[in-house]
Automatic annotation (TrEMBL):
<dbReference type="InterPro" id="IPR018062">
    <property type="entry name" value="HTH_AraC-typ_CS"/>
</dbReference>
<dbReference type="InterPro" id="IPR050908">
    <property type="entry name" value="SmbC-like"/>
</dbReference>
<feature type="domain" description="HTH araC/xylS-type">
    <location>
        <begin position="9"/>
        <end position="108"/>
    </location>
</feature>
<dbReference type="GO" id="GO:0043565">
    <property type="term" value="F:sequence-specific DNA binding"/>
</dbReference>
<dbReference type="InterPro" id="IPR029442">
    <property type="entry name" value="GyrI-like"/>
</dbReference>
<keyword id="KW-0804">Transcription</keyword>
<keyword id="KW-0805">Transcription regulation</keyword>
<dbReference type="GO" id="GO:0003700">
    <property type="term" value="F:DNA-binding transcription factor activity"/>
</dbReference>
<dbReference type="InterPro" id="IPR010499">
    <property type="entry name" value="AraC_E-bd"/>
</dbReference>
<dbReference type="InterPro" id="IPR020449">
    <property type="entry name" value="Tscrpt_reg_AraC-type_HTH"/>
</dbReference>
<dbReference type="Pfam" id="PF06445">
    <property type="entry name" value="GyrI-like"/>
</dbReference>
<dbReference type="InterPro" id="IPR011256">
    <property type="entry name" value="Reg_factor_effector_dom_sf"/>
</dbReference>
<dbReference type="InterPro" id="IPR009057">
    <property type="entry name" value="Homeodomain-like_sf"/>
</dbReference>
<dbReference type="InterPro" id="IPR018060">
    <property type="entry name" value="HTH_AraC"/>
</dbReference>
<dbReference type="Pfam" id="PF12833">
    <property type="entry name" value="HTH_18"/>
</dbReference>
<keyword id="KW-0238">DNA-binding</keyword>
<protein>
    <submittedName>
        <fullName>Helix-turn-helix domain-containing protein</fullName>
    </submittedName>
</protein>
């Protein structure tokens, strides 16, 4: 069983890092050392979906993020990068899985339908990571950092709407990620907070002072101080496991206590600009 699981994990890792290529079944079988006569059935049992569906959903996830958050990307270009030969084929495939055409999704994304479709992959990634947790924790001093914050309040399924608003605000104020660090402030635990009360801060550093007349954006700061840090490489699907590790196993075995500031992320490399496997997020837990 361990060997079978390890091979399936290798397949998922390979797919994650080669989504931009023409994935070949013979190549995948050779890489994972799996017989092609049993390959599809093994993958379907382990992943909960067929291999073809798995690849399609991973590509469509990136397409959904590009549609929602990258308005300068043309739909036909997103279609071609997702493995479709035409706008029409992409539109049919996208609507089949997410109940909206790409154009409709770009105008008004239904993230709830998207999350239901994507649930099998989320489940398997968390299962894999929970069986293979290996985190390196550093203690670092984080500098005082002025930030602009837009607070999302409400169900996680509607977070995408707030992200769109914050991206638009950053563009209007000329604060792109290459000039301003990007942060998330985790005020609440989504597993322990009623959906309508859940809060998460979307933030960016302020390299210069600004006046904001936007009632949704406030000027604040991340205070200087000691933090426990994990560098998380890969999809956000499993980032919650790293957070739980800091609060649980690591903190209980350390001599530190928590400071009065929420755990926060710094987004170093972004999806969909890079593949999910290439995302980098630094997780900071304020301690003393």
């Amino acid at each position: 069983m361990a060997t079978y699981q390890a091979r399936c994990i290798k397949i998922l890792d390979y797919i994650d890092t080669h989504l931009d290529t023409d994935l070949n079944i013979d190549e995948l079988c050779a890489y994972a050392q799996v017989s092609k006569y049993h390959f599809h059935r093994q993958c379907s049992v382990f992943f909960g979906v067929s291999l073809i569906t798995l690849v399609r959903l991973l590509r469509l996830k990136r397409a959904a993020y590009q549609l929602a958050y990258r308005n300068d990307s043309r739909i036909i270009d997103i279609a071609l990068s997702s493995g479709y030969d035409s706008h029409e084929a992409f539109s049919r495939g996208f609507k089949k899985h997410f109940k909206q055409t790409p154009s409709d999704f770009r105008q008004s994304p239904n993230w709830e339908a998207w999350q239901v479709t994507y649930a099998p992959i989320l489940h398997i990634r968390n299962q894999i990571m929970s069986d293979n947790m290996d985190y390196t924790v550093q203690t670092v001093t984080f500098p005082h950092t002025p930030i602009a914050v837009m607070v999302h309040k409400g169900a996680m399924q509607r977070l995408g709407i707030t992200i769109q608003k914050f991206i638009a605000w950053r563009k209007a104020n000329q604060l792109p990620p290459n000039k301003s660090q990007t942060f998330n402030l985790l005020y609440d635990d989504p597993t322990a907070t009623p959906a309508d009360e859940f809060r998460l801060g979307l933030a960016c550093s302020l390299p210069r002072s600004i006046d904001t007349n936007d009632t949704d954006v406030t000027v604040d700061s991340i205070p200087a101080g000691l933090c426990a840090k994990i560098r998380h490489v890969g999809s956000d699907d499993t980032i919650g496991l790293a957070v739980n590790y800091l609060y649980g196993e690591w903190l209980s075995q350390s001599d530190f206590e928590l400071r009065d500031f929420p755990l926060f992320f710094e987004r170093v490399r972004f999806f969909p600009e890079v593949l999910e496997s290439e995302m980098i997020t630094d997780i900071y837990l304020p301690i003393q």
